[in-house]
Amino acid sequence: MIGEVGSPVAEPQEHSENQQTVRAPIATVLAERGPQVLAAWTHRGGSLASRSGTAELERDGGAVLDALAAALGTADESVDLAPVSRLLNDFSARRTRAGDSPAETAGLVLALREALLGELADIGDAETRYAVAREAGRIVDELALGSFDSFLAGREEVISQQGEQLLELSTPVVRVWDRVVAAPLVGTLDSARAQVVMESLLQAISDDGALVAILDITGVPTVDTLVAQHLLKTVAATRLMGADCIVSGIAPQTAQTMVQLGIDLSDVTTRSSLADALAMAIDRVQAHADRSARR
Amino acid sequence: MTAVPVVRIRNALVAAMQEDIDDRSALDLADRLATEVAAHGAGLVLLDVSAAQVVDSFISRVIVDIAQVCRLLGAQVTVVGIRPAVAITLVELGLTLEGVRTALTIDDAMDAAEEGLGGDVRLG
């Protein structure tokens, strides 16, 4: 038994008729003592998984056991575990979204082995019990591997969704005053985001006829040479559009790092806070309006 | 070749580049602007590129040249209405039109010129 753990691949010397005879007792136990198996399963799983996971298992475990009994009960040589896997995969995907860890989800599926073995303890002679236990272990391992795969797939999906949401959330451009637009940047500035920021800032300048654009980097944790490069490009592009660009919110630590890295921002207007930058932008717009009024 | 129209308004010259400006038209424009500035003593040259969808490295080089020539002749050049997409392309190509003033609209360019301030004058 110990040698079989984690090795779901069938041993080559096992013959099909043999397989048939070892599966039959499992199917019988599942059919006759399904509720006991489920109870043992949820009891075992309870110590490994979260409470909501156990509750869900209590609700959905019966269907899994029924599907498993149906798959094992057929007279075919090969066992089709696909319907069982599908149920378990749905289950793991739901657990992923509920925030369970891989160990909890896999543990819940693997708890089925102990539950099955407990109910199979009193059948036949020692040799039959051994063969049946091996087969039961093999089947559960296979199911657990499948559910782990779907757990990962579910998690990947969550990650990619969050990535998209982050990109949408983190690049707003707001009109903060007449002819003044501001882009408060939050999070790490990589090439893809820098491009989005530049595009939306320039479009906002064009749409609002902005005279001043404020690039606030208070929420950018680190500024390395690459990020500085992106900032300089954005500043150069706003200048081409005929607007002044003010970079604000450089933290003292960041300023020191930038100086040590030799990043030259001497051609860029900077202010320590967004408030200072806005005050400066308003002065500039006001001066422009005064000039227009005098004419 | 389609010649770029150059309009004189008081002491300002306004040249509006068309959508599909080619290299020869650009060079021709540079020649005519230099001649006009010298002939009329214009103080301000506005290059309106808001219609241009594409500004390549050659055109941007010609624009920088026009700015330098006109400065020698006593006129200040402002490039007006660069589109967002064009600005991004120019920056990515490293062509930042150093030493050339920029403005979003003709109005802004004229306001800035009257006060002797350009888009590249630093704040504070």
Can you describe this structure?
The complex is a heterodimer of chains A (295) and B (124). The longest helix of chain A has 44 residues, at 126-169. In chain A, helix 1 (16-32) packs across helix 3. Chain A starts with 15 loop residues before the first helix and ends with a helix. In chain A, strands 1-2-3-4-5 form a five-stranded mixed beta sheet, with helices on both faces. Chain A has ten helices and five strands; from the N terminus they run ααααααββαβαβαβα. Chain A is α/β, with parallel strands linked by helices and 295 residues long. Chain B has helices at 23-40, 57-72, 84-92, 106-114; strands at 6-9, 12-16, 44-48, 76-80, 101-103. By secondary structure, chain B is of the alpha/beta class. In chain B, a hairpin with a 2-residue loop joins strand 1 and strand 2 (12-16). Chain B is globular. In chain B, strands 1-2-3-4-5 form a five-stranded mixed beta sheet, sandwiched between helices. Chain B has four helices and five strands, in the order ββαβαβαβα. Chain B starts with 5 loop residues before the first strand and ends in a 10-residue tail after the last helix. Chains A and B meet through helix 7, helix 8 and helix 10 of A and helix 3 and helix 4 of B.
Short characterization:
The complex is a heterodimer of chains A (295) and B (124). Chain A is an alpha/beta fold and 295 residues long.
